[in-house]
């Protein structure tokens, strides 16, 4: 059973056809690199999967269930999580507080409900250990490296037992060492059976970690193939239109 299946998905904004007849299958524990130039439709496709947009036509299946998302919360309930490029972290809070932001643990003392800081730190430590990250629950986000911030954002997705994680440019504007750390985090998700859609312009990173590569051009899927059967030169040609399809 696939983790995610798109059947002929199209999205139109008036006369603008952002996506046209996109069909794609993503298996559990698979990393798919989603590539394309600016305006190719990557962000629109991610927003359809994540419940921000309803497709104009076509079908989305999560597992064997047909999905009809009306808002992002619906997609989250189906096990779809998004790690956006800006990560949406609060710099003044600790790693643990960011992991549980909006989903805080509490305990009752008499008539009062208090935040369970110890419980949140303990659970965050388990998630960081699972990700093999050196991030510590008490660390403040503003003092973290780019790789540690990604670990916090990814740990947050694991709270809800994510089946599919969509990652938007996770290795942009970070150092070489931090890139290696983030790619290891992605491999760790894959090893735990979580499907990852990696949106990136960084060709070496995609080929380093992706099992398959999907290329969008002008809203159409022009390639969907094993990374080992392709090359950066071919993908560049597909993105620019020098190669029509593969």
Topology (elements, then pairings):
Layout: E1 4-13, E2 16-26, E3 31-35, H1 42-49, E4 57-62, E5 65-67, H2 72-77, E6 80-83, H3 95-99, E7 106-109, E8 112-115, H4 117-130, H5 146-158, E9 164-168, H6 176-191, E10 195-199, H7 203-209, E11 212-217, E12 220-226, H8 232-240
Helix pairs in contact: 5-6
User: Average pLDDT value?
Assistant: 94
**Number of separate structural domains:** 2
Second-tier CATH architecture of the largest domain: 3-Layer(aba) Sandwich
Largest sheet: 6 strands, mixed
CATH topology label of the largest domain: Rossmann fold
Q: Report, as a whole number of angstroms, the end-to-end distance.
A: 25 Å
In total, how many beta strands? 12
- Output the CATH homologous superfamily of the largest domain: P-loop containing nucleotide triphosphate hydrolases
Helicity, as a percent range:
25-40%
What would you report as the Rg, rounded to the nearest angstrom? 19 Å
Main structural class: alpha/beta
Contiguous helical run count: 8
What fraction strand?
Answer: 25-35%
Tell the overall outline. Answer: globular
Note the run of SSEs as H and E: EEEHEEHEHEEHHEHEHEEH
The CATH class of the largest domain, by name, is Alpha Beta
Give the strand order of the largest sheet, numbering strands 1, 2, ... along the chain: 6-9-10-3-11-12
Low-confidence runs of at least 5 consecutive residues: none
How would you describe what is shown here?
With 246 residues, the protein is of the alpha/beta class. It has 2 domains: 1-79 and 163-171 and 194-246, 3-Layer(aba) Sandwich (Rossmann fold), CATH 3.40.50; 86-161, no CATH class. 32% of the residues lie in helices and 28% in strands. Strands 6-9-10-3-11-12 form a 6-stranded mixed β-sheet, with helices on both faces. It has a 4-stranded antiparallel β-sheet with strand order 2-1-4-5, with helices on one face. α5 packs parallel to α6 (176-191).
């Amino acid at each position: 059973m696939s983790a995610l299946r798109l059947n002929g998905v199209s999205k139109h904004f008036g006369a603008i056809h952002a996506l046209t007849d996109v069909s794609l299958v993503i298996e559990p524990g698979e990393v798919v690199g989603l590539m394309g130039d600016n305006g190719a439709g990557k962000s629109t496709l991610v927003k359809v999967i994540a419940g921000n947009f309803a497709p104009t036509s076509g079908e989305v299946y999560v597992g064997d269930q047909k999905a009809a998302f009306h808002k992002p919360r619906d997609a989250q309930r189906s096990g779809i999580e998004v790690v956006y490029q800006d990560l949406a972290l609060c710099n003044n809070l600790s790693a643990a507080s960011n992991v549980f932001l909006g989903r805080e643990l509490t305990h009752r003392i008499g008539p009062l409900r208090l935040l369970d800081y110890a419980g949140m730190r303990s659970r965050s430590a388990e998630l960081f250990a699972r990700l093999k990250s050196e991030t510590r629950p008490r660390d403040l986000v503003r003092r973290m490296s780019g790789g540690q911030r990604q670990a916090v954002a990814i740990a947050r997705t694991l709270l809800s037992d994510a089946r599919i994680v969509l990652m938007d440019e996770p290795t942009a504007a970070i150092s070489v060492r931090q890139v290696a750390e983030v790619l290891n985090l992605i491999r760790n998700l894959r090893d735990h059976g979580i499907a990852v859609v990696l949106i990136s312009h960084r060709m070496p990173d995609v080929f380093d970690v992706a099992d398959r590569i999907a290329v969008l051009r002008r809203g159409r899927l022009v390639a969907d193939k094993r990374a080992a059967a392709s090359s950066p030169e071919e993908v560049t040609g597909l993105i620019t239109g020098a190669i029509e399809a593969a």
